[in-house]
Amino acid sequence: MQEHYYDDQNDEDDRSHSSYDCEESKDEYDETRDDYNMPMKPTNGDLKQHVVAVTIAVIAAVTTHAQIHGGFESWKNQLMNDWDALRSSFAGKRTDSSTRTGVPRAAPNGGAPHAAPVMNAIPADLRQKAVQKAVQDIAAAEDSSLAIGHARASAFRRTADLKFCYTDAFDSSQKAKNLVDLDFIIPLEPSVAVLHSYYLSDALGLDSSFVYDSVDTFGSFDSDIILKKIGAAIEEYEGEGLSTQRVRLIIESYVDSDLVDDEHVCLLQQYAANKRSGRSIRGRTKAYDQPHLSSFYDNKVVSTAVSSSREASDMMTPASLTFTGFATKFINLGAQPVNLYWDGGHISSGPKAGQIHTALVGAIPIMESIGTASFPGHSFFVTPSYDKDHVLRRWTVTEDDIVLYYDPLENLYTENQETEIQKLCDSGKLNLKQKFARDAWIVDRSFSRDYLVKTGRHYLSVFPQPLVPEVVQEIASSSDEGMMPMWGADFLGQVHSIETSELYFTAIPNALPKLSRDDFLPDVEQQRCLEMKKYRSSQVKGNGNISNSTMQLDIKVVSCAPRVLEVKRFLSPVEVQHLIDLASGSKGDVSMQSSTVMASGINDKKVRSSTKQVNRSSTGGWIHREQDALVDGIFRRVADLLGVDERMMRDQRPAHLIGTDDYESLPTHDRIVEAMQLLRYEPGEHYSAHHDFTYPSVFHRYQPKRYATVLLYLTGEGDVIENGIRRSRSKKSAADGESEDGLAGGETTFPRAITTEFHDGVKVKPQSGKAILFYNVLPDGNMDDLSQHAGEKVEAGVKYVANIWVWDPIIS
Ligand SMILES: O=C(O)CCC(=O)C(=O)O
Ligand SMILES: [Fe+2]
């Protein structure tokens, strides 16, 4: 077993690292002090490196995160004061072996008899202030409502639902139904280092992957230091164990005490306890336990009563499905980028008969992943990106094996793998960040085994993920903190009702100018609402005089697994026509182009267009919320439908303002919605079964996902488009059996939906103004493989739909 983590520094660094806790001399302290005012650059001396790196980390953390400038001097002074205070306070104590101050004593094997001082890195009030200031800055001073997303992103904690203490069960904070305890066992190495970094990121509220990045940049501000400190403390207290208090104090030298998570402490305590024996780490989280099919048909079943009714319901069996596809995920654990190809077998006829048909799925960068929907028996292979003829690894996928790793070291024992990785790092073929990512995958892979055993599902996210709460009935109040909520789907036909103040547009406003950033300032917004009032109504065919200020929408469950809900009359005919006008170009700027699919990492038109023909043959265009007040109203209604705050759904960089003075370069990381994607299918066009989710980069702290899809149907079965105007099939012509060439086909199918009767899954018929909402993730943060869906072939007429994809916790 390796003694140290991430020892990718040169030997000299390494040596100084191991002596970190016990051998700093008085001189070094002084030197450090001198260096303190020097330019911020890591130096060779440990202590210096530590102090400087932590200082840089602290400052960079807050500046990166908060985008503030200034305040640096006061921080530096504060830190120096702390430093001085700590030095003097430890001066008399450090040789006193009877005093357990929480600071590890000198190691028995000699060296200067003093330990590294505890440094209170960021005083809580300062951090608080910095965050506030950042939020203010981002809000452009006068508009605090624009800042909400940022505050929410700051509150994000990837480690929120992990337990390592075992002191209490999870029950009190049950966030959604059908969650069960999942105990997992993961290898001590590298799990502790990886999870420790996640905890640090969360504690510091660092944006993006700062802690992971810092492994590269600052060398010492990573798991290494703390783990080594603990390692040294273990040596010192051999046999005595390492108290919670002591571990906590060690972490507190990096993170303000308020921010230290108890579970983080317990994780490191487990490390301390098990390091010698090499025993694994034990933890607990929550997993989604898909209720038994019978509960889908039992509208009396609520919540956890499911298990008690299980016996009686064992009779019910799911209809076997004709569709056999599933998601696949390919991970590149090697030190070079690879291309992933699908091997379509021999071409049976035509001029290319006998040749192997291959299609490029995408490029996989080092330590990244890509996915595609696949079928059993499909064959894939990877090659180096520069040599497509050199096959490195080949797989034939089955439903039992959908997460596939390309690991050139897979046949080596763990220790030998570590040696090889070390060599790759030493020779510059792998950087520390990539090494970290490899470790992150190893942890993920280990967790996913326990997840599979417990749930029967493959783990398609990257462990850990915070839980997704269920929508509470107060609109827009549930998403202020934590992950975005999901509607429950306890049984088929279950109805949730919401009140929304986003009434239907029943007439087109006289003027519909584009909205700019300032139009979202609260008073401007209020003014717009007032102006729009006369065009809106709580009834689809009403007029603006109707006095109701809200209207009710019923959200009906049409599939429990996957979770699909339907809202009839979500849009008014006027709204539908407005979107069609935008799509057909009669209102200008939405340019419709051939729809493409994600071909990860590939910027090759040929690949995209060939993929298009095979899988997705519609045309599409994007409509931004800032298009006009009507579209804005639709986005607000969608926010109410989802139970999230509409302010999270703004595109804070309206596309039409790019290049103008109004184009504010606000951070986009507080945004959760994409522009609306309008699709137009002509007869014969379709979209094959796919997932809307993609796999976020392993380096991304927030692990953003397209968690929900809202699909708006503009044309319905039988509808005709004449001169750009939608007309529903008249009752008369329908009764006469007259053919009007109206829309036929084009259902949205969920071919894997679990029911007792439908072998083809659940089909949703296009109906003008109807919306469906489905979730691409499960309450435990895993991707929902069952969310796979297709746009069936349009037989006749024109199908118009609009996709609204909503991300959690932020847009990528
Ligand atoms: O057209 C449909 O019914 C589905 C479209 C879809 O799934 C998509 O565009 O992602
Ligand atoms: Fe889709």
UniProtKB/TrEMBL annotation:
Biased composition (Low complexity): 104-117
Gene Ontology molecular-function annotations: dioxygenase activity; metal ion binding
Region (Disordered): 1-36, 93-117, 726-748
Cofactors that this protein relies on: L-ascorbate
Gene3D superfamilies assigned to the protein according to its UniProt record, in alphabetical order: q2cbj1_9rhob like domain (2.60.120.620)
Fe2OG dioxygenase domain sequence ranges: 672-808
UniProt KW keywords: Dioxygenase, Iron, Metal-binding, Oxidoreductase
PROSITE patterns in UniProt: FE2OG_OXY (PS51471)
Biased composition (Acidic residues): 21-33
Keyword Oxidoreductase: yes
Pfam families to which the protein is assigned, alphabetical: 2OG-FeII_Oxy_3 (PF13640)
InterPro entries: Oxoglu/Fe-dep_dioxygenase_dom, P4HA-like, Pro_4_hyd_alph, Pro_4_hyd_alph_FE2OG_OXY
Protein's UniProt name: Fe2OG dioxygenase domain-containing protein
Species whose genome carries this gene: Cyclotella atomus
